Amino acid sequence: MYDARALANFFLDRAERAGIGLTTMTLLKVLYFAHAWYLAKQGEPLVAQPFEAWKHGPVNRVVYDQFKHHKKRPIEGRAVSFDPRSMRYAQTTVIFDKDTSLFLQNIFDYYSSFHPFALSDLTHERGGPWDAVWSEAGERAVPGMIIPNDLIEAWFKANRALYWTDRERNQPT
Question: End-to-end alpha-carbon separation of the chain, Å?
Answer without folding.
Answer: 19
